Amino acid sequence: MAGRKRSVRVKIFAILLLPVVALTVIWGFAATISVQAGMEYIRIGTVYEHVVSPARVVLTELQNERLRSLSYLGTTSTFHADLDTQQETTDAAAAALATHATEAESSTPPAMWERVQELLRQLSRLDTVREQVENRDISRLDALEEYSSIAEVGFQVYDRLMISPDIDLVAQTKAIILVGRGREIVSQQSALLAGTLGAGKMTEDERAAFAEMVGQRRLLYQLGTSQLDEELRQPYDALNASPIYADYLTLEKGVSEVVRPGKVLPIEAARWQATVEAVSITLDKLGGEIARKITERAAPLAESVLWRVALLGVLGLVAVVVTVFFSFRFARKLATELAALRHAALDLADRRLPDVVRRLRNGEEVDVAAETPPLAVHRDTTEVDDVSEAFASVQRTAVEAAVGQARLRKGVSMVFLNLARRSQSLLHRQLDLLDTLERQVGDPAVLEQLFGVDHLTTRMRRHAEGLIIMSGAAPGRGWRDPVSLYDVTRAAVEEVEDYLRVLIAVPPETALAGPAVTDVIHLVAELVENACIFSPPNTQVFVRGELVARGFVLEVEDRGLGIGAEELAHLNERLAEPPEFDLADSDRLGLFVVGRLAQRHGVRVSLRASPYGGTTAIVLLPPDIVVAGEPEEYTVERLIPQQPALTPVPSDGDGLPRRVRQASLAPQLRGENS
């Protein structure tokens, strides 16, 4: 998540996602293991039905064929119809095993499947052994060995049956396989005795083989039955206590002790075959019953596992759902609190604080306590509550700072206003004195110097009025009647030091409304003065005017070096939307005054590059302050209506306004020297 900004909701989701995924994975893993265990139990039934049971039938029929083959080899008779029938039965059992095994291939363990396929391959070579038996080209012991080797592969199929995850079930399966191997030896004994009875005598090798079988059978039978639990061992205990099993033990002892190799068999040998066959058949039945019981035991275990799987699945799913529900509920709640806190902070920054600042700029009183209420945020989290308190503190500090700044600005404005009023009072008195001296002096040289001082004092008065404008107040001078725009322009030019460089081309037919005269004179004077300052002293500044569709346009053009495009755009922006006065921006006082005056009367002032390389200032006076037609003779009056009206301002012979004693004095200061 590094390098990208994401919401708190996404980050909380990412934090909660890891434990939820971990819980889901653990639940899925446990459920998978339980399902696999249940499927193992179910596989036991499938494998028993399609592999174990058909393989057991194959082994039984193979043992029967072995018995009849050795019986045939023990006689000299050529009749073997019963042997042919048994061979067909064995082949049918082998075909059934192949068919059933294919159906259960997916459920059969790989090792067991390989043994089944090997058993089928071994059964396919029975034709060779059968041919040797039929032609009597093989001895009884060799035939017994051939059939027994094939049967051994069948028992290896059983050895791979350990697919149950239950340890007790596996132990019982191993035990019944050992008993089954013991029963295989009993079947071998039966086949060996059948061949011996047919021949009427037993060879030395056959006697030794029988004795070896006795030892193997007893070992396997004892190991197998001893590992069975009480329920499964009970039928074998009953067999061990039966008379037939006692006769069988007597038979084994008699063959080992009474029979002499190459001699005629004793009389009791006639019952041996029947006794061994009875024990073999009994063991075969018991083996099938025990195998079914073991399979039946696996079914409840499978059901139990499946129930556990279902319970685990339901409980795990409920746990995951509950975890996800509460996690995302917590995340949503926390995100909601943070979002509400964010909205409150943005409301403070974008609406409430600017509104307080605007009201303060308008001179309204602001109650800090009323403007800084507690943030309306529902908070149940300690950290969110702390942040809310911090925002509330920031809010109070910001409003208090804004109020303090407003008071400071108001104080600075009052300082400007007081200084300007005092300077204006002194300057008006100075202008009165100069006017008196101008009337008394007749020397042209001295009179020219007095005119210079008079002009300088007029410029100083304009600067004092600039301070009044910066303080937010209005200058004291004013006109009641419209004044010709030509005279307004001349009056503005006369307040500039290099007024002789300025050429005026303004039609006299259009006049300016009286209340706007003072401010427009000041505005044009500032623009003309800038044009004179930022242009070479040997160039001229042109002031043109004409009536247009949207008012009256005055153009102030200089022949200076001009202003860069970026700076020009910045200045036009400040003229269109005058910013709050900044004490640090003292080199832009004239621009600030022009913007304030233009904003006061709806005048549009813009700057553009002049074709001559300099700058042209365009002043668009709105129609509501422009008066068409011949203007009446104007008078200077006070702005405060309760004071007496001013005396009209006469003009010289050339039409220029002529100063009258105290005519330019601020209204609130005029009267004490009259």
Automatic annotation (TrEMBL):
SMART domains named in the record: HATPase_c (SM00387)
Location of the Histidine kinase domain: 520-625
Record has Transmembrane helix as a keyword: yes
Catalytic activity: ATP + protein L-histidine = ADP + protein N-phospho-L-histidine
Gene Ontology CC: one annotated term: plasma membrane
Bilayer-spanning residue ranges: 12-30, 305-328
The keyword Transmembrane helix is annotated on this UniProt entry: yes
EC number: 2.7.13.3
Every NIT domain range: 53-301
Alphabetized UniProt keyword annotations: Kinase, Membrane, Phosphoprotein, Transferase, Transmembrane, Transmembrane helix
Origin superkingdom: Bacteria
Region annotated Disordered, chain positions: 644-674
InterPro entries cross-referenced by the UniProt entry: HATPase_C_sf, HATPase_dom, His_kinase_dom, Nitrate/nitrite_sensing, Nitrate/nitrite_sensing_bac, TCS_sensor_his_kinase
Family matches, as PROSITE patterns: HIS_KIN, NIT
Gene source species: Acrocarpospora pleiomorpha
GO molecular function per UniProt: protein histidine kinase activity
Protein name per the record: histidine kinase
GO biological process: phosphorelay signal transduction system
Gene3D superfamilies: Histidine kinase-like ATPase, C-terminal domain (3.30.565.10)
